[in-house]
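hey so i finally got around to running both of the ones u sent me last week. sorry it took forever, my laptop kept dying halfway thru and i had to restart like 3 times lol. anyway pasting them below in the order u listed, first the sequence line then the structure token line for each. didnt double check formatting much so if smth looks off just lmk and ill redo it

first one:
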Amino acid sequence: MSIQFAVRITACFALASVCTLLSAAQQTTPPSNPDPSTQAQPPAPTKDQAASAGQQVPTDTNKDKDKKDTNANGQGKVVGTSNDRLFYTLPNFLSIENTAQLPPLTAKQKFAVVARGTFDPVQFPWWAFLSALSQAQDSEPGYGQGWEAYGKRFGTAAADGIIENFMTAAVLPSLLHQDPRFYQSGKGGFLRRSEYAVSRIFVTRTDSGHSQFNYSEIVGSAMSAGISTFSYHPKSTYLSTPTNPHKFVGSDRTLVNAADVWGSQVAYDTITIVVKEFWPDIHRKLAKKRKVDTVGATP
């Protein structure tokens, strides 16, 4: 597990770094000529102008306001969350760059923001990579080899991620009234901030703003590991191989495997949350560097 986990982490941040470079290159490319068909339209009349002309002035109802709030920037942003992405790529919608107390998220909002991040397009190539890695290592050999086996591994990787995300950030936070958001500290040196970030795996806020043991993360990841391990991971079976037409393969539905998956999920979440703590600083430095490079490139 340790080697596979290390490879996953390395590949994740290597992919993110490549996407960061591509994003920076795109942002330094001069814009093309505007399409004549997209010329600016005349501004809509103000409320005073519309009223003087005898036109009906539309008013924002609470329902319309909620709809606007949950669709900010056309991206379905939930109020009290963010549109941020780690390395401009990986969804980071539940991270907040301050420790101020925000209005609590409703259960509907928790599910909405988790669904938005879980089914983000970047997740699909990530699951495809994990499936290819699993196939190359012949992990869970009960699936065998070939495209059919790869499809099963892809479904397993996707289901594992989906269940873990919803259990730790939507289902249990809704039932236990815990806040699934990560509030960046930004105070102190590297060690202090790293300790704070790691502590958030075990300590979280409640919807009312109090500190509480992070049952959502610890218990939620254990539950997701148990659900995935004992429901759709391969059972014991016989496989036909070139050297053994009746090779027996043991079941992966064991407590040891469930504990292994649980440990991997918690370790991955711990590393990710430390990156989330320092990402705003990295983001600002990258933005400053791009600004300097853009000004220097101006003729």
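and the second one:
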Amino acid sequence: MPSIEELLRKSIPALRELFLERDRAVPKGLLEALEIDTRQGAHHLAKRIRERYRSNRSEGQRLHTLLRFEIDLWARGYSLVAGVDEAGMAPLAGPVVAGAVILPQNYKLRGLNDSKKILDHEMRDELAAQIKQDAVCWSYGFADVEEIDRINIYHAGLLSMQRAVQGLSCLPDFVLVDARKIPQCPAPQRGIIRGDALSASIAAASIIAKTTRDAHMLEMDGLYQGYGFASHKGYPTPEHCRALKELGALPIHRRSFGRVREVLGLDPVQTELFEDTSEELPGEAAVARAH
């Protein structure tokens, strides 16, 4: 790194590119030198760098807090902690998909959060790619529309989670789940209400689940044109409901959901369908892919 004197001979735009756009480490003494520099823009650059410091410090604290459940488990000897979450409970079409992720200990990824809070789909995709690259292992599991209609959406969500965990290439020591308990889980587990916003592992799993399901619905958009699956991903938006009424139900529409049954002229599903009659899920072969 050049000396402070050499850096100060650079233009303010050149310094801005180095320390803001390229996020280079700021040498000791440069901020103070910029604050007494008489050139136009020097004071503003120093202010922007200090704001970046505060932002990075705040993000670091947020990510540390997001690891509080994992840190407790690591301290108790559970080295491989898996997070599990699902996506796609509410849509009228398509599968429910779960993600399972085991992160390295003390892992911090800038921007990691509950997938529902990340509105920029490109950022979600970038985070998913980074998580897949960095994770000890990760997996996803599907429960398809036929299973949703047969065992109901709640149990189908659990089935997708079960398959995601079964698809992991290494056995977890402990499993953190968003608000539920997974049947036949191979390790001790804990359900955390709003876990996707409180646990780094569950947040990472939510991003894997969301991006995997979104990619699947993009494929469905190419197969079933005119329904707008690329934009709404099967959720009951006005656009989707209008297409459903005008074009009719597809094989990927959930026939146990009221709006789909209405279009098909079927009676509402009886509440007995949703009663929990068994502690275990059906033993279908897993539809999961491990990495």
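quick thing i noticed on the 2nd:
Confidence is low (pLDDT under 50) at residues 271-291.
anyway thats it, ttyl
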